[in-house]
Amino acid sequence: MKALLNKLLVIAVVFTLSFTAASAQVVKWDSTYRPGKYVEQVAKFKADPKSKKDIVFLGNSITAGTDWAKLLDLPQAKNRGISGDITFGVLERLQDVIDGKPAKVFILIGINDISRNIPDSVILRNYKTMIARIRKGSKRTKIYFNTLLPVNAAFEKFKNHYGKDEHILWLNDEIRKFNAKNVTVIDLYPNFTDQDKHLKAELTKDGLHLIPAGYQVWADFLKKSGYLTDH
Protein backbone atom coordinates (compact mmCIF):
# COMPACT_ATOMS: atom_id res chain seq x y z
CA MET A 1 0.00 0.00 0.00
CA LYS A 2 2.84 2.37 0.89
CA ALA A 3 4.51 1.67 -2.43
CA LEU A 4 1.24 2.45 -4.25
CA LEU A 5 0.82 5.71 -2.37
CA ASN A 6 4.38 6.74 -3.22
CA LYS A 7 3.74 5.95 -6.88
CA LEU A 8 0.57 8.02 -6.88
CA LEU A 9 2.43 10.87 -5.19
CA VAL A 10 5.11 10.81 -7.88
CA ILE A 11 2.46 10.87 -10.61
CA ALA A 12 0.73 13.82 -8.91
CA VAL A 13 4.00 15.76 -8.66
CA VAL A 14 4.86 15.11 -12.32
CA PHE A 15 1.37 16.23 -13.39
CA THR A 16 1.63 19.39 -11.30
CA LEU A 17 5.05 20.26 -12.72
CA SER A 18 3.86 19.61 -16.27
CA PHE A 19 0.78 21.78 -15.76
CA THR A 20 2.87 24.57 -14.23
CA ALA A 21 5.37 24.46 -17.10
CA ALA A 22 2.58 24.59 -19.66
CA SER A 23 0.97 27.51 -17.87
CA ALA A 24 4.27 29.39 -17.78
CA GLN A 25 4.79 29.22 -21.53
CA VAL A 26 5.06 32.63 -23.16
CA VAL A 27 2.05 33.48 -25.27
CA LYS A 28 3.05 33.95 -28.90
CA TRP A 29 1.41 36.61 -31.01
CA ASP A 30 1.51 36.35 -34.79
CA SER A 31 1.48 39.10 -37.38
CA THR A 32 -1.93 40.52 -38.26
CA TYR A 33 -0.93 40.44 -41.92
CA ARG A 34 -2.46 37.69 -44.07
CA PRO A 35 -0.15 34.65 -43.55
CA GLY A 36 0.41 33.92 -47.24
CA LYS A 37 1.25 37.53 -48.05
CA TYR A 38 3.47 37.82 -44.98
CA VAL A 39 5.56 34.78 -45.93
CA GLU A 40 5.72 36.03 -49.51
CA GLN A 41 7.00 39.42 -48.38
CA VAL A 42 9.62 37.88 -46.09
CA ALA A 43 10.83 35.68 -48.95
CA LYS A 44 11.08 38.74 -51.18
CA PHE A 45 13.22 40.51 -48.59
CA LYS A 46 15.52 37.49 -48.31
CA ALA A 47 16.00 37.39 -52.07
CA ASP A 48 16.81 41.10 -52.31
CA PRO A 49 20.58 41.73 -52.76
CA LYS A 50 22.25 43.09 -49.64
CA SER A 51 25.10 45.49 -49.08
CA LYS A 52 26.96 46.77 -46.06
CA LYS A 53 26.00 50.24 -47.28
CA ASP A 54 22.28 49.50 -46.91
CA ILE A 55 20.08 51.72 -44.77
CA VAL A 56 17.22 49.53 -43.61
CA PHE A 57 13.81 50.86 -42.55
CA LEU A 58 12.19 48.15 -40.43
CA GLY A 59 8.61 48.14 -39.22
CA ASN A 60 4.94 47.73 -40.09
CA SER A 61 2.59 49.39 -42.61
CA ILE A 62 3.62 52.87 -41.50
CA THR A 63 7.15 52.08 -42.64
CA ALA A 64 5.92 50.10 -45.67
CA GLY A 65 3.79 52.99 -46.92
CA THR A 66 6.45 54.90 -48.85
CA ASP A 67 9.40 54.40 -51.17
CA TRP A 68 12.25 55.40 -48.86
CA ALA A 69 14.91 55.38 -51.57
CA LYS A 70 12.91 57.81 -53.64
CA LEU A 71 11.65 59.91 -50.74
CA LEU A 72 15.11 60.42 -49.30
CA ASP A 73 16.97 60.36 -52.64
CA LEU A 74 18.97 57.54 -51.10
CA PRO A 75 19.45 54.51 -53.40
CA GLN A 76 20.77 52.37 -50.56
CA ALA A 77 17.58 52.80 -48.49
CA LYS A 78 15.70 49.50 -48.15
CA ASN A 79 12.08 49.25 -47.09
CA ARG A 80 11.55 46.35 -44.71
CA GLY A 81 8.08 47.28 -43.51
CA ILE A 82 5.26 44.71 -43.54
CA SER A 83 1.63 45.69 -43.06
CA GLY A 84 0.18 44.52 -39.76
CA ASP A 85 3.50 43.46 -38.29
CA ILE A 86 4.22 43.49 -34.58
CA THR A 87 7.39 43.22 -32.49
CA PHE A 88 7.24 39.42 -32.53
CA GLY A 89 7.13 39.43 -36.32
CA VAL A 90 10.12 41.76 -36.53
CA LEU A 91 12.08 39.50 -34.18
CA GLU A 92 11.30 36.47 -36.33
CA ARG A 93 12.62 38.13 -39.49
CA LEU A 94 15.38 40.17 -37.90
CA GLN A 95 18.15 37.67 -38.66
CA ASP A 96 17.88 38.38 -42.37
CA VAL A 97 18.56 42.05 -41.65
CA ILE A 98 21.46 41.18 -39.35
CA ASP A 99 23.01 38.82 -41.90
CA GLY A 100 23.18 41.68 -44.41
CA LYS A 101 25.34 43.74 -41.98
CA PRO A 102 23.69 47.02 -43.04
CA ALA A 103 25.22 50.39 -42.24
CA LYS A 104 22.08 51.54 -40.43
CA VAL A 105 18.75 50.21 -39.22
CA PHE A 106 15.80 52.50 -38.51
CA ILE A 107 13.13 50.80 -36.39
CA LEU A 108 9.51 51.86 -35.88
CA ILE A 109 7.24 49.15 -34.48
CA GLY A 110 4.72 48.64 -31.70
CA ILE A 111 1.42 50.33 -32.51
CA ASN A 112 -0.12 47.05 -33.70
CA ASP A 113 1.11 45.37 -30.52
CA ILE A 114 -0.75 48.02 -28.54
CA SER A 115 -3.90 47.51 -30.60
CA ARG A 116 -3.79 43.78 -29.75
CA ASN A 117 -3.35 44.47 -26.04
CA ILE A 118 0.12 42.97 -25.85
CA PRO A 119 1.49 44.20 -22.50
CA ASP A 120 3.74 47.24 -22.64
CA SER A 121 6.40 45.36 -20.69
CA VAL A 122 6.47 42.63 -23.35
CA ILE A 123 6.75 45.18 -26.16
CA LEU A 124 9.62 46.89 -24.34
CA ARG A 125 11.34 43.54 -23.77
CA ASN A 126 11.08 42.84 -27.50
CA TYR A 127 12.60 46.24 -28.29
CA LYS A 128 15.58 45.46 -26.08
CA THR A 129 15.94 42.02 -27.65
CA MET A 130 16.08 43.61 -31.12
CA ILE A 131 18.84 45.95 -30.00
CA ALA A 132 20.81 43.17 -28.33
CA ARG A 133 20.58 40.86 -31.34
CA ILE A 134 21.68 43.54 -33.80
CA ARG A 135 24.53 44.55 -31.49
CA LYS A 136 25.71 40.93 -31.26
CA GLY A 137 25.26 39.93 -34.89
CA SER A 138 26.31 43.10 -36.70
CA LYS A 139 28.49 45.22 -34.45
CA ARG A 140 29.07 48.01 -36.97
CA THR A 141 25.39 48.55 -37.76
CA LYS A 142 24.12 51.81 -36.29
CA ILE A 143 20.72 51.47 -34.63
CA TYR A 144 18.11 54.22 -34.80
CA PHE A 145 14.96 53.68 -32.76
CA ASN A 146 11.89 55.81 -33.51
CA THR A 147 9.33 56.83 -30.93
CA LEU A 148 5.80 55.74 -31.81
CA LEU A 149 3.59 58.11 -33.75
CA PRO A 150 0.35 59.41 -32.24
CA VAL A 151 -3.05 58.31 -33.55
CA ASN A 152 -6.26 60.24 -34.21
CA ALA A 153 -9.60 58.72 -33.18
CA ALA A 154 -11.61 61.29 -35.15
CA PHE A 155 -11.31 59.09 -38.24
CA GLU A 156 -13.04 56.11 -36.56
CA LYS A 157 -11.45 53.51 -38.84
CA PHE A 158 -8.92 51.68 -36.67
CA LYS A 159 -10.81 51.58 -33.39
CA ASN A 160 -8.50 49.04 -31.77
CA HIS A 161 -5.63 51.49 -32.18
CA TYR A 162 -7.43 54.47 -30.63
CA GLY A 163 -7.94 55.38 -26.99
CA LYS A 164 -4.62 53.89 -25.90
CA ASP A 165 -2.53 57.02 -25.76
CA GLU A 166 -1.12 56.16 -22.34
CA HIS A 167 0.55 53.08 -23.82
CA ILE A 168 2.13 55.11 -26.62
CA LEU A 169 3.36 57.71 -24.13
CA TRP A 170 4.80 55.10 -21.75
CA LEU A 171 6.63 53.23 -24.49
CA ASN A 172 7.97 56.46 -25.96
CA ASP A 173 9.37 57.43 -22.56
CA GLU A 174 11.10 54.06 -22.39
CA ILE A 175 12.41 54.35 -25.95
CA ARG A 176 13.95 57.72 -25.13
CA LYS A 177 16.04 55.98 -22.47
CA PHE A 178 17.75 53.94 -25.20
CA ASN A 179 20.06 56.88 -25.80
CA ALA A 180 22.05 55.58 -22.84
CA LYS A 181 22.56 52.25 -24.67
CA ASN A 182 24.45 53.73 -27.63
CA VAL A 183 21.26 53.70 -29.66
CA THR A 184 20.21 56.85 -31.48
CA VAL A 185 16.63 57.72 -30.56
CA ILE A 186 14.63 59.55 -33.21
CA ASP A 187 11.81 61.33 -31.44
CA LEU A 188 9.23 61.40 -34.22
CA TYR A 189 6.22 61.78 -31.91
CA PRO A 190 6.38 65.58 -31.33
CA ASN A 191 6.62 66.23 -35.07
CA PHE A 192 3.22 64.67 -35.72
CA THR A 193 1.06 65.83 -32.81
CA ASP A 194 -1.56 68.54 -32.87
CA GLN A 195 -2.43 70.74 -29.89
CA ASP A 196 -4.48 67.89 -28.40
CA LYS A 197 -1.60 65.41 -28.72
CA HIS A 198 -3.34 63.59 -31.59
CA LEU A 199 -1.92 62.72 -35.00
CA LYS A 200 -2.31 65.82 -37.15
CA ALA A 201 -5.37 65.35 -39.37
CA GLU A 202 -3.64 66.91 -42.36
CA LEU A 203 -0.92 64.22 -42.27
CA THR A 204 -3.10 61.11 -42.19
CA LYS A 205 -5.81 59.39 -44.21
CA ASP A 206 -7.32 57.31 -41.43
CA GLY A 207 -5.94 58.41 -38.07
CA LEU A 208 -3.15 55.83 -38.19
CA HIS A 209 -1.38 55.75 -41.55
CA LEU A 210 0.41 58.67 -43.17
CA ILE A 211 -0.26 60.39 -46.47
CA PRO A 212 2.63 61.75 -48.60
CA ALA A 213 2.61 65.01 -46.63
CA GLY A 214 3.21 63.01 -43.47
CA TYR A 215 6.12 61.13 -44.97
CA GLN A 216 7.57 64.42 -46.12
CA VAL A 217 7.55 65.69 -42.53
CA TRP A 218 9.36 62.50 -41.53
CA ALA A 219 11.91 62.81 -44.34
CA ASP A 220 12.58 66.49 -43.64
CA PHE A 221 13.16 65.71 -39.96
CA LEU A 222 15.64 62.94 -40.79
CA LYS A 223 17.54 65.15 -43.21
CA LYS A 224 17.58 68.17 -40.90
CA SER A 225 18.77 66.07 -37.94
CA GLY A 226 21.64 64.54 -39.90
CA TYR A 227 20.64 60.94 -39.13
CA LEU A 228 21.12 59.91 -42.75
CA THR A 229 24.62 61.28 -43.13
CA ASP A 230 26.26 60.72 -39.73
CA HIS A 231 28.90 58.00 -39.55
CATH level-4 homologous superfamily:
SGNH hydrolase
Largest sheet entry: 5 strands, parallel
Name of the CATH architecture = 3-Layer(aba) Sandwich
**How are the strands of the biggest sheet laid out side by side?**
2-1-3-4-5
* Overall radius of gyration: 21 Å
**Would you give the CATH topology?**
Rossmann fold
What kind of oligomer do you see? single chain
Please tally the helical runs, counting DSSP H or I stretches of 4 or more residues: 10
Q: Structural class, judged by helices and strands?
A: alpha/beta
Number of domains: 1
List segments where confidence is low: pLDDT < 50 over at least 5 consecutive residues. Answer: 4-26
Compute the number of strand runs: 5
User: What is the average of the pLDDT values?
Assistant: 87
Helix content: 40-55%
Strand content: 5-15%
Terminal CA distance: 76 Å
Please write out the topology.
Layout (H helix, E strand, L loop, with lengths): L1 H22 L11 H13 L7 E5 L1 H4 L3 H4 L5 E5 L5 H13 L4 E5 L2 H5 L4 H18 L4 E5 L18 H12 L7 E3 L2 H4 L19 H14 L6
Parallel strand pairs: 1-2, 1-3, 3-4, 4-5
Q: Could you provide a short overview of the structure?
A:
With 231 residues, the protein is an alpha/beta fold. It has helices spanning 2-23, 35-47, 61-64, 68-71, 87-99, 111-115, 120-137, 165-176, 189-192, 212-225, and strands at residues 55-59, 77-81, 104-108, 142-146, 184-186.
